[in-house]
Structures are given as structure tokens and as C-alpha cells.
Amino acid sequence: MKRILIIASHPDDEVLGCGGVIALASQKGYSVRVIFLAEGVSARYNEEDFKDNKIIKEIENRNKNAYKALGYLGVSEKEIFTSNRYCCRLDTLPQIELIKDIESHLEDFRPSMVFTHSGDDVNIDHRVAFMSSLAALRPIKKSNVSDFLTFEVLSSSEWNTLRPFKPNYFVDITKVLELKIEALKLYDKEVKDYPHSRSTEMLTALARYRGSQSYFKAAEAFCIVRKIENSL
Ligand SMILES: [Zn+2]
User: Fold this and answer.
1) 100-117 pLDDT per residue, tens
2) Which domain holds residue 115?
């Protein structure tokens, strides 16, 4: 029985990056836990306004949407961990705080698969999530993690045109692509109009493109950070 841990910077990254995997895993009855390292709202405002009720409400709403979207994909409420750390500022925190947070989930949840951000994303919190996960998952003791993978997030990964995401692991999401798109729509403020890359058109286009690279009608693509083979 697989146990899947997803380490995402902001609510919506998990759907964009691996919403298809979440849906498929839930359908198979696997345990899925999603942890967020930050909220996803405050970067749009000035720091002196962070205590404004309007911003606090928006953060609450974004976190509520995470429960709705992940519930829709089949994740149990008790396996969703939101955070009110300010977004696009994770690089200003002592990294050890994030590493210890991730380590506590590794200890408690004992995942067999771990997904997090690509280290080449434009978004600073995504890069910090990658570096913190790398540190938390360093192989210094016996672990159940056999697959450690990174995902791509539209409106961040593909914007680094000089260091494009280079996947080498594909999952057929043909049966759940519609679920993934509907889950993203539950983040009402995050879906933009095409040609913005965080649009339903581009989410579909990326799934089709990754599908054509792996001969599926739709796929999610990942990079392997570490794969441990223990069945031979
Ligand atoms: Zn993000």
C-alpha cells in the first residue's frame, strides 16, 4: 500500500503539479498527505498591510479552497496541513524551520513516495521547498521512501526558459484529467484566462503534451530525484 506525501509551497501547487496522481491514488485507497509550507496570498500586497482583515480573510479563503479541492480529489481532511507563513518570503526564514517541519511529517506519516517542487522554478518558495525537501530526505537512516520526485507547476516551472523542466517519469492521468481541472477551478481566484499559463486551457495542453511524450492521452510528468529499488 503506497503512502504519498506531497510537499507544496502554496495551496493550488499540489493540484497543478500532481492533481492527477492525487486523484488516482485516492481512487486506489492509498493514503495521501499534503503539506503546505506557506499561504499563497500575501505576496500580492505590501508588507504593512499584512494584518488587514481583507488579507487575513483572503488567506483563510485560499486555505479553505485547499480543503475543498483536495477533498474533491479524495484526500482526507486530517491529511491536509495548511500554513500561514507569508508567501514568497520562505527564503527569509531559517531553513532549518522548514526542514524540521518536513522531517516531522516524514517521521509521522512514513511515506513511500514523496513529491515536491522543481528546484528550477521561478517562484522562490518553490525553490526553497525543493532545497528543504532535499535536506529533510537526505539518506542518513532507514526510510520507506522509494520514490522521491519533483513536479512542474504552470506559471513557474515553464517560465524559467533557460532551465526547462526535464521529466523522466510519467503517469497516465487520462481518466482523471477532468477531475484535476475541476479541482483547480475550486481555487476560484487562481485560475486565469488563456493565454495566462495558469488557465484550464494550458493545464489541458500540458497534460496532452506530456501524454504525447509517454503515449498516453494525458499525463503528468515528474523528475526523479532518487529512486530506490528494493524489490530485486
Ligand atoms: Zn506556488
Assistant:
1) 999 999 999 999 999 999
2) 3-227
